Amino acid sequence: MAGPEIEHLMQMLARLPGLGPRSARRAALYLIKRRESALEPLAAALAQVAERVRPCPQCGNFDTASPCSLCADPRRDDGVICVVEDVDDLWALERTRAFSGRYHVLGGLLSALDGIGPEDLHLPRLLERAGQPVVQEIILALPATIEGQTTAHYIADRLKAAETPDHSLRVSGLAHGVPVGGELDYLDDGTLSQALRARRPV
Amino acid sequence: MAGPEIEHLMQMLARLPGLGPRSARRAALYLIKRRESALEPLAAALAQVAERVRPCPQCGNFDTASPCSLCADPRRDDGVICVVEDVDDLWALERTRAFSGRYHVLGGLLSALDGIGPEDLHLPRLLERAGQPVVQEIILALPATIEGQTTAHYIADRLKAAETPDHSLRVSGLAHGVPVGGELDYLDDGTLSQALRARRPV
């Protein structure tokens, strides 16, 4: 019914996370009806990204510059490296403007179930970067899931094992607690008991 | 943080129906991480559609052929024209394989609220097509909303007014009733009472 070009576009759109077959059809029709204002600009944006964006060889962030603008920025603190699972976590942290150190993208988490071992993550480069004398702290900003915490413990062990008498590292993780704006009522027991144990003077 | 190219791609994706800012970020990252298997194929699919797909001058369907493959198919019945609001409704009807006549896409519905009048719809072409001697029936497959039904009544009146002694038209609408697989419990009163009034011998 819709020609093969339209069918193909729908299939490509349906593969995107968050779009099912139905919303892919709607998106395709939206684009076809707005050729000049939506379809061609999206095609151009994709071509630009395809041509110019590459992973940063240092931290794994995506950027047009190599090393990326975060690795190259001289105002950022070389003493702290924040380790994240993936680039979207890096983006989320950057949106907070609460961190001004460097990043390292692991590219995944250890998972026995999915057969992901240490050799599948960008670990050697992290250990190498952590060995630089200037680095004082590694923040493991990994998800508060079993896989995230397993990965954090594994990396902490590897970092400790690589320490030398002249160079010791602080290894930290994100605080657990009540989300800002969150009702206690809706929180799970684990978070609430962590928040209680880590209580702070007001 | 993410470069301007990536930000721009996220904005373009966030405009698609069904994608918010958050899912647009996820979709952008998905594409960037799969340059050869997802990003470039999507860009190519968009370029193909932009270059080749046009609205059919006859019925308003989108296709690479002009007139479209449905208008050109000699096996379809010229005697029945099914009027739909938009191309996705045409696609939905074609998926059922229950209709083998011709289509006519209105491109909208009458709406006093949105200031959409008869002159904003593809009506003249429909009246012209309906006037051909071969056409015997017009099916108004419009939504069961106030605007859909207002539009259906308006078109039915215009079609009746255009009838000549030599050429009369049957004008019909879709049946209302219990959706196939639907529980009575979950149906609204309007649908249920329509289904009861239009009951059929078993």
Automatic annotation (TrEMBL), chains A, B:
GO terms for biological process: DNA recombination; DNA repair. Gene3D superfamilies: 3.40.1360.10, 6.10.250.240, RecR Domain 1. GO terms for molecular function: DNA binding; zinc ion binding. Residues 79-179 form the Toprim domain. A zinc finger (C4-type) spans 56-71. CDD domains: TOPRIM_recR (cd01025). The keyword Heme does not apply. Signal peptide: none annotated. Keywords: DNA damage, DNA recombination, DNA repair, Metal-binding, Zinc, Zinc-finger. InterPro entries: DNA_Rcmb_RecR (IPR000093), Rcmb_RecR (IPR023627), Rcmb_RecR_Znf (IPR015967), TOPRIM_dom (IPR006171), TOPRIM_RecR (IPR034137). May play a role in DNA repair. It seems to be involved in an RecBC-independent recombinational process of DNA repair. It may act with RecF and RecO. PANTHER family: RECOMBINATION PROTEIN RECR. Belongs to the RecR family. This is Recombination protein RecR. The gene is recR.
